[in-house]
Amino acid sequence: MDLDTECIPLGHIQTYLNIKKSIEFDSDWLMKRSGLAVSDPEEFMHSITGLDLTLIRENAGVVGSDEDVVGKFISPRQVLDIIGQVIKELKMPYLGLPLGNLMTVSHHGMAGLAAITQPTIWDCAQAVVRYCQELFPALEMSITIDGDKGYFTINENVSLDPYTHFFIELNFVSFYNIFRDLVGNNPELMPIRVELAYPEPEWGHIYRRYFKCDVVFGCNENRFIGRADLQNYELPLANRLMAMTAEKSLFENIPTRSMRFLPLRLRRLLIRYYGAFPSLEKAATELGMSGRTMRRKLSDDGTSYQQELDFVRQKFAREYFARGGESITELAHLLGFADSSAFAKAFRRWTGSSPSEYQDLLRSSK
Fold first, then answer.
1. C-beta separation of 58 from 137 below 8 A
2. In degrees to the nearest 10, what's the CA dihedral of 115, 121, 122, 126?
3. pTM of the shown model
4. 3-state secondary structure of 44
């Protein structure tokens, strides 16, 4: 997948930007709900409600009326173009923050309903991870448990620069608010830290309006950190039948393509085999093809088995160090390297730093 792969359902992007459906036409309500303080609330409200999404889509090369949204896919590059236009028109580089604050469970549609009706927080997070894989494969979400801490992480499968922050802001604020509602606004159950993998922007102070916990920039990954024991927290709206029905409706009405992309399917297979990665031939067999066919298909997508394996290895290595792991020998073994020196050489190729230098950088950022 690259910036020009048409893999994102346009209908999903519309849920981000159809702001009119998210607000009451009252400037005081909008200011309070969005958490903003602007000099002219009325003008700001009219700017938001006056966005011409049809024109914005056409400027991004996405032609068609609102009726053409269903079944249409757009590329990450077109998404970035659309987001860039909206940010510039509203003169709000921090748009992801208030927009995320305006979003509710209902704004996420069937995906939101299917997530909050899962039995536990763990099941809810796993559902969110699954929906992201299908609805917005440019991002990859994951949930991990390590000791007494739980981590919900968002990484990029393709660079969304210069608007990476928009997607992280929007999702993190929205998820934070929904999580707060699920646990009854109990401060003891809320995330204890938000980490962002980019330098603090000029509007960094605005983040503190939305997150009632530590917010740290320049970290290794974009992630929430919370209590691990919350994974078994039973959700108040748990209803397995409703969750299954909502998910079925979601994928019937918003077609997806991401699982058709071989590189993403291969990455997910490799992730399942963490600690004992399969050979190319075995991976190909599990994916229903010969090794020769997989090599050709991966080459057509501009990648290879080794590149995808390195992507997964790098991901696991970064997560290992971010969780406080220190044994380079242990990590090298887990990632299938012959010895620690072979791993160190590969790690320097991936990151530009040796494993020990990388660990020092992480310690200094805390």
1. no
2. 20
3. 0.71
4. helix
